[in-house]
Write a structure and sequence with these properties.
- This protein is of the alpha/beta class.
- It has two domains: 235 residues, 4-Layer Sandwich (Nitrilase/N-carbamoyl-D-aminoacid amidohydrolase); 70 residues.
- Helices cover 31% and strands 26% of the residues.
- The chain is built from nine helices and 15 strands.
- The strands form three sheets. The chain has a six-stranded mixed beta sheet with strand order 5-4-3-2-1-12. A six-stranded mixed beta sheet has the order 6-7-8-9-10-11, with helices on one face.
- α1 crosses α2.
- The radius of gyration is 21 Å and the shape is globular.
- The N and C termini lie far apart (48 Å).
- The model has no long low-confidence stretch (mean pLDDT 97).
Length: 317
């Protein structure tokens, strides 16, 4: 059963603020800045907006760490609450990435997922900080990596440096999210594609303007991307999909298309040996389609191949 979700990713640069500016004025300017940025995507009525890492931090090159800490404490949750109001008034989810202070006085680099009512649906704390975030900025490493439930599917979060670490990625491989939300100051290059494919998940990356923000499919293809002219991207994806290897399954594809036509989509990205199968109708889900035609999903195929390799008599002495 098709599960369409419209996603917007913003590549807005950090706002440059004179460190001598009054902290209250800085907070107010930051809110006005994000009002302007959001005006670029809200007319498309997205279901989800993904913001870049530390989105409400003043541009750091001219803003000393001590002043930044004072700003975070003065700001509190007010900018989060501003985004929560936007989420509620536009009935969308927002992945708000920012530094936040905990009651014990320590800090986290977090993504807070705000739901369509403006409530916090989940909080992810960056698991893999850059060392200076701990040694200079008094942040602590996050230890949990939960998958959050939304009305369109399950989502996982990663922040910037996280993308380099297999430990976190493998946790998500096991949890099988529908969508990975990536808020970042760096792009990650081929790692975005690798995460999408290895997690069998769509991937929505919001990165500052020095690199594009992109939406990727579970076979690692870029579906849509921001450009050097327009620093935002909006696209609709279908989360009712599965990655299927061509081996042993390909013989069924023609029969499937002959029966269901454009109610299903079998997309071959080329070179990979796998296709992305999706249900484009409300009549049946992709899992029901898989069962009807006796298809084998990619991870099941890999597991069967490993077991066959290790079966008695199949491995060289």
């Amino acid at each position: 059963m098709a599960r369409y979700v419209k996603i917007s990713c913003l590549s807005a640069p950090q706002l440059r603020v004179d460190p001598q500016t009054d902290l209250e004025e800085t907070v107010e300017r930051m809110i006005r800045y994000w009002e302007t940025q959001l005006e670029q995507v809200l007319p498309d009525q997205p279901d989800l907006i993904v913001l870049p890492e530390c989105c409400d931090r003043p541009e750091s090159s001219g803003y000393p760490l001590e002043r930044r800490t004072a700003y975070y404490r003065h700001r509190g949750d007010r900018i989060r609450d501003y985004f929560a109001g936007v989420a509620a008034s536009h009935s969308c989810y927002i992945a708000y990435s920012a530094i936040r202070e905990l009651p014990d006085g320590s800090f986290r680099n977090s993504t807070q997922l705000l739901d369509r009512q403006g409530n916090v649906a989940g909080v992810y704390n960056k698991n893999h900080l850059v060392e200076s975030e701990r040694t200079k900025a008094d942040m602590l490493y996050g230890k949990d990596a939960s998958v959050f439930q939304t009305d369109f599917g399950t989502v996982a979060c990663a922040i910037c440096f996280d993308l380099n670490f297999d430990r976190l990625r493998e946790q998500y491989v096991r949890q099988r999210p529908d969508l990975i939300l990536f808020s970042s100051a760096y792009h990650g290059g081929l790692m975005q594609q690798y995460w999408a494919y290895s997690c069998r998940a769509h991937f929505a990356g919001s990165v500052y303007t020095h690199a594009p923000s992109s939406i990727l499919s579970p076979v690692g293809e870029i579906i849509a991307t921001s450009t050097n002219y327009y620093h935002y991207v909006t696209s609709t994806v279908n989360l009712d999909c599965a990655v299927i290897h061509i081996d042993y399954n390909g013989a069924h594809f023609r029969r499937m298309k002959n029966k269901y036509g454009d109610k299903i989509r079998i997309h071959d990205p080329g070179l990979l040996g796998s296709v992305l199968l999706s249900s484009e109708t409300d009549e049946f889900t992709v899992n029901e389609l898989i069962r009807e035609f006796g298809l084998e999903q990619l991870d099941d195929y890999w597991q069967r191949a490993l077991e066959h390799r290790c079966a008695s008599g199949n491995l060289e002495e």
